[in-house]
Every structure is written in structure tokens, then in C-alpha cells.
Design brief:
CATH topology: TIM Barrel
Strand content: 15-25%
Number of strands: 10
Oligomer: single chain
Helix content: 25-40%
CATH architecture: Alpha-Beta Barrel
Strand order of the largest sheet: 3-2-1-8
CATH superfamily: Copper homeostasis (CutC) domain
Number of helices: 8
Number of domains: 1
CATH class: Alpha Beta
Distance between the termini: 5 Å
Shape: globular
Length: about 240
């Protein structure tokens, strides 16, 4: 069994660190404090020029919930078309109806706009009212994977549901655990769930390199970056399970 590791990155610099450390895929995002939003066109363009591994920008116009207005949907559609023009390998989407069910109609339109790129359905899934129903809907839409923490804050807490989702999926779609995944728990999570792909930011906060910081602002101005040593250790641990 071959395992794959995707890294959530919040800059092109972070994406290059992930690539060098051995990741197979980058989910490119902006706004870490909001859980990830659509990166700028400049970031997408430069990441595509510099990365030889898979590049999947997230298509999320804002933080908050996953119920989008008509204007937000049109922005998402435009961003997907740009990603396709740039030669991205895929995009990451997710949208729900007010009742907590997957918004099948609008997701289908986004997936159609993305073709022939791949599509991952992101952790909007973890807010769905019925995970098994959501799973079947997302499979029917043609997504290639679901990023989920098993409807818990971190994936290790959602291991039982993740295992059940993988069983129910029966290889019709990839279930990719993410959230709180580190070297300290990756082996346990892999063994408990049977998952083959995993997602992590492997995040550390790099101190500002500014020579002067105004202490009255009471901010450290740290930059989130993936820890290459952490990525390599996760990959090593997964390889030991192969």
C-alpha cells in the first residue's frame, strides 16, 4: 500500500518547502486565520511555474460558513477558470445548503467548470448533517477525494467515522484525513482508518525577520510555514507502514 501526503500551504515559499520535503501535492491557500481562502492569482501563477508536484488551489471566497451567495458563486467560478488556464492539477471546493446537505446543483456547476482538472471536496463535509448521505452525493458529483477530519475538530478524534467512510466509499472516492495530523499520530491514524492519503500543514510559525517591531502593536508578525523535518518524518513513518 502506497501512501501520499498533501501539504496545506499559505504561500509560494511554503509550497516550495513542501515540495522539497517530499510532498506529492500542495493545497494552496490564503488567510490561515480563516482556515484557508482562495489565494491570489499571482500566487497561483507563480506556484504553477515553480512546482512540479500537484497543485490544488482552494476555491473559497471567504472564511465562515459554506453557504454562498450568487455573487460569491460567480467569483468561485471565475477563480476555477483561472486555475484551469494556469494548468493547475485540480481545485478544492465545498458548499452546503442551509439544511446542512451538500449543494449538489452549484457544486456540479463548479466541477463542470473545473474539467479536466481534478476536484477535492474540502472540510465543508465536516459540517454536513448526514456524512454518509454527503459521501454518496459527492461521489455522484464525480469528485476524486474528500478532505475530512471525520466531523471532529481533529482527525484522530474522528478516526472511527473516517474508517466507516473509507469502508462505505469502497474505493469509489479517496477519503483523505486532515486536521491536527502530525508525526506523533500519523501511524495510529493510518492503522485505525485504513486511509492512503493524508493532509497536514505541518505548520510552524517563523518569527519576523524585521530588525524593528513596534511592541506597542502587541503582534509578533509571525509567518506560518511548513516544517520540512516534520514532513519528512511523517513520510518516513508512512513508508514504514507500506
Amino acid at each position: 500500500m502506497r501512501f501520499e501526503l498533501e501539504i496545506c500551504c499559505f504561500s509560494v515559499e511554503a509550497a516550495l518547502i513542501a515540495q522539497q520535503a517530499g510532498a506529492v501535492r500542495v493545497e494552496l491557500c490564503a488567510s490561515p486565520a480563516e482556515g484557508g481562502t482562495t489565494p491570489s492569482q499571482g500566487a497561483i501563477r507563480m506556484a504553477r511555474e515553480k512546482l512540479h508536484i500537484q497543485l490544488y488551489p482552494i476555491i473559497r471566497p471567504r472564511g465562515g460558513d459554506f453557504l454562498y451567495s450568487r455573487q460569491e458563486f460567480e467569483v468561485m467560478q471565475s477563480d476555477i477558470l483561472f486555475c484551469r488556464q494556469m494548468g493547475c492539477d485540480g481545485v478544492v471546493i465545498g458548499m452546503l445548503n442551509p439544511d446542512g446537505r451538500v449543494n449538489r446543483e452549484e457544486a456540479a456547476r463548479l466541477i463542470e467548470s473545473a474539467y479536466p482538472m481534478g476536484v477535492t471536496f474540502h472540510r465543508a463535509f465536516d459540517w454536513a448533517i448526514d456524512p454518509m448521505e454527503a459521501l454518496e452525493t459527492i461521489i455522484s458529483l464525480g469528485c476524486e477525494r474528500i478532505l475530512t477530519s471525520g466531523q471532529q475538530p481533529v482527525a484522530i478524534q474522528g478516526a472511527d467515522l473516517l474508517k466507516e467512510l473509507i469502508r462505505q466509499a469502497a474505493e469509489r472516492i479517496i477519503i483523505m484525513p486532515g486536521s491536527g495530523l502530525r508525526a506523533a499520530n500519523i501511524s495510529e491514524l493510518a492503522q485505525k482508518t485504513g486511509a492512503r492519503e493524508f493532509h497536514t500543514s505541518a505548520r510552524i510559525n517563523q518569527a519576523s525577520r524585521m530588525g524593528y517591531l513596534n511592541k506597542q502593536m502587541q503582534e509578533t508578525l509571525e509567518t506560518p510555514l511548513p516544517d520540512p523535518a516534520e514532513i519528512r518524518e511523517i513520510i518516513r513513518l508512512l513508508q514504514n507502514l507500506e
